[in-house]
Design brief:
This protein has 451 residues and is an alpha+beta fold. 32% of the residues lie in helices and 33% in strands.
Length: 451
Amino acid sequence: MDIENEQTKRLNENNMKNLNENIDDVFTENFANNDLNKIDEVPMTSDYQDKNDEENAKNDLENSKKSLGKMVKRFRRRMFVSFVAVALIAALIGGGIVAGIMAYTNLGQKTQVINRYLPLSSNNSNANLITNIAKIVSPSVVGIDTSVSYSNGFRSAFVSEGSGSGIIIDSQGYIVTNYHVIEGASTITVSLSDGRKFSAQLIGKDSKTDLAVLKINATNLTAAKLGDSSKLEVGDLAVAIGNPLGESFAGTVTSGIISGLNRNLQSDYGAVNLIQTDAAINPGNSGGPLVNSNAEVIGITSVKLTSTDSSDTQDQFGMFHSQGTLVEGMGFAIPINEAKPIIDELIKHGYVERPMMGVSVQEVTQQDAAQYNIPVGLYIAQVQQGSGADEAGLQAGDVITAVDGTKVQTFDALQSIISKHKVGDTITVTFWRNGKTLSTKVKLMSSSNAQ
């Protein structure tokens, strides 16, 4: 490249030298053949012999030469500017061609880059999208530490029980987390992202949906923006923020995609509908946010499935307990659209009001039915005093076989029918007692009566 530049430099210098020589030759020749000859041909008669006239002629000649010199210089400057302009245009054209070739050459490489987090706004890029999400959401994520009271008969003390995460949902200090994070806790401590710590009050809890609401008395709180989980699609960006393994790793940010929707799983608290993601979720992330590309909370992280062996403590849903398959990248979150009404109920009442019969039941399988000579259905183990079931005359030992004309053989089937009703509605219960099939009307009571 240095040799080429030196050759180009010499070529330009030679071109400029030849250009100047040509210009000098042209104008010298024109001047010699025309203007100077004309001046020499002026007749020198006696009328012009006096020195004044001679001086005037010399002055005219000198002025003519000076004017001509100025013309030559102006012409040289114009030619030089034109030459430079042509050179610049040529360079631009050449550069444009090169740039076009480079763009075309790199086009194949660009098509090989797969943008995992499409669609993105024009103001964002893959390089800073997750960074910006973390900056926006992290101030709304808190750490939650719990302890239980312990006594040995002589003295009592609080013993650390566990830790989790939570989301500030209101500037007044309301925080949502998982029920299993605070279950059985005697004291609850909330740690903010700015380092402040506060004792938290339990406002309400709902074991069925694994949700709980806490409140702290703090100022300058940043509430997270809640999104719309119904708009999620498989493949969308998913960012999880929380405190895996406790305070030492507070504010950990992991990213992935939405791996699945409407995952109906069975938990210790009943059937739940969850979002599946491959974003890394570990113990301590529970209760933290799952966020979309707009930095909106679209889920509350709940559990990570690492093994289908029932002895694995990470399989909190008890899925595939008969197998022992190791799995990875299967995290779950409660959809925010399902959590919102629960959160509102917990803030308003401290509990979630649901219709219920007021009975405790046990499933009767085909094998049980054959062994005890009773029908397949739901065996009533206990009837709550004063409940709708009690007032309707149901008793312990009865076997519920149908509700509103639909056979019920599992607890989930019974709950599915009841959940379609409101508190105060009446359902028709068909049951078996001492070899006879009977029916009765049961008025559904509020679950608050069982709190």
